[in-house]
User: Fold this.
Amino acid sequence: MLVRAMTAGIAVLAIAMPAESQQRGTVEFGAFASNTAFDDGLGLNNGWGGGGRIGVFVVPRLSIELEGGGSRPGRPLGLAKVSVGVISARLVAVPLKFGRVSLLLGAGGDHTDTYFIESYGAHGLIGAKLALSDLVALRLDGIGSYMANGKYTNLGLHLGLSVYRNPSQQPGSDSAEETHRLRAAATSYDALRDSLARGPATRQKPPSSAEALATMKEMIYFPNDRSDLSDSAKGILSEKVTVFRANPAMRLVIVGFASEPGTAAHNMALGLRRAEAARAYLVSRGVDPIRIEIATRGAGELVVEGPGEIADAANRRGQFRLLIADPHLAAPGTK
Assistant:
C-alpha cells in the first residue's frame, strides 16, 4: 500500500513540475556495484556483484539504456555459489530535478541466466542522480524485477558513477563561432553609433575607443545550472576592470540570464546569482560597488532559440550595459 501511495505521489509531481536533464544525443556511460535479494523460491542468498550500462538521451528528459551485470550469490545448506547474469533494456525518465539532484523513473525488460534457470522478465526502477560536475554524477537505483519463468521476484540496489558525453558536438565550437559573430556585429554597431553621435561641438574631442566599448559589452558565460565563474569569464571581467580605471565616471548594469530548462522562479534566481558573482569579482579587483548595478531576466530575451545544447550554452550568460559613461569612452592607458 505504501509503495502504491509513493508511486502515485511521484506521478502527480512528475506531471505538475517541469524537469531539466541532459540534452538530446547525450550518451551516459555508467559502472556500478550491486546487491540483489533473490526470491526465496530460487534458493539463493543475497548476492553482491557489479556491472555497467550505456544510455542515450532521445529527448531532454527521456533516455534508452542497455545494462549488463552479474553476481555470485551463495546457496543454503552450504551448496556452492553460482553465477547469475542479467542483461536489461529500459526507458528512463527524469521527471524532477532539485538543484544537483535528479529523480529517475524507469521500466523495461531483462534476461536472467544461471546454471539452473533462464528467464525473460520485466522490471521497474526508482533512482536518483547527484551531479558531481557537468560531466560526472553519482547514481543510485532501486530495481524490482519479475522472472516470467517461475514467477520469481527479485529486488536489487545499484550504486555507481555515470559519465556524460555528446559525441555529435565538440563542446563550445559552434557556440564559440556564433558568439564571435555576435561580438563582431556589436562592435561594428557601437563604432557606427559613436561616429554618428559626434556633432560639430564634439569634433575636437578625441574619438571614443571602439575596443573599450567592446570590452565593456563583452558577455560572460556560465556552466549549466551554476553561477561560479570560469577562468575565461574571470579573464573577460579583468579586462573590464582596466576600462573602469580609465573612466572614473562610468557606471555599469550587469544582467544575469539563464537558458530555457527549469521553472521561471528558478531561472530568475539563477540569473541574479550569476549577476552577483560577476559584480563580486569586479569589486574584489577594486571597482567601487556603487558603480555597479545588477538585475536578472531569467530565461527571457534569449539570444539563440532552443532547445538544444548550443542554444542553452549561448543563453547562460551575464550581459553588460553602460548606465553612465562619457560619450567618448577612454581606452585604458590613454590620458
The helical segments are 2-16, 173-197, 210-217, 231-246, 264-284, 309-315.
